[in-house]
Amino acid sequence: xxxxxxxxxxxxxxxxxxxxxxxxxxxxxxxxxxxxxxxxxxxxxxxxxxxxxxxxxxxxxxxxxxxxxxxxxxxxxxxxxxxxxxxxxxxxxxxxxxxxxxxxxxxxxxxxxxxxxxxxxxxxxxxxxxxxxxxxxxxxxxxxxxxxxxxxxxxxxxxxxxxxxxxxxxxxxxxxxxxxxxxxxxxxxxxxxxxxxxxxxxxxxxxxxxxxxxxxxxxxxxxxxxxxxxxxxxxxxxxxxxx
Length: 243
Prior knowledge:
- The chain contains six helices and 16 strands.
- The chain is α/β, with parallel strands linked by helices.
- It has one domain: Purple Acid Phosphatase, chain A, domain 2 (4-Layer Sandwich), CATH 3.60.21.
- Strands 8, 9, 10, 11, 12, 13, 14, 15 and 16 form a nine-stranded mixed sheet that branches. It has a seven-stranded mixed sheet with strand order 1-2-3-4-5-6-7, covered by helices on one side.
- Helix 2 (52-67) packs parallel to helix 3.
- The protein is globular.
């Protein structure tokens, strides 16, 4: 089970490109798409940890915005892990949103962790979905089939590397693009599990035609389709393939 040649980016069709760092680029509208940041996670799980991931996340996003001369940043839901943050943590999240708005147009898509109404105080105006380049972008917690190609987050897809190790991954089919989670705290959803197959199937996508592109901070690695990876896993007797 090996990846194709590594690259800084991999075209996913329709003007959409997977970028190193797990971000999606939509060329027609010069939009950078980032999913599932889960800012404030450290405080939401107990408040004992500093919000160090916020600054790291911002630096990566700002670097990509500058590198691609992006006109728009789309945050694809679950921007925060919880809307119940302390005043200090809330101020830091608000400051991050203002910092991004000074660089480009910021479009915030509501996720299940904040909701369009509940997230407004922290994140500003939130929308349920936006259409860009003929694709419908929404968080993905409420699947739908309507003829458009969907771009979602929510699933946190990943390629399991054995043990506790995994790497975030894009999933790409004619019907669907799944953008990997940007939070450093999630191992992600193993793309070889039934849960993953069922989730993409809700959009009409099939494992045999859904491409996998793993994304590290510096490179993208095409892995073929989910079906091909599943067959390789069975041949190697990986337990994940039997789920």
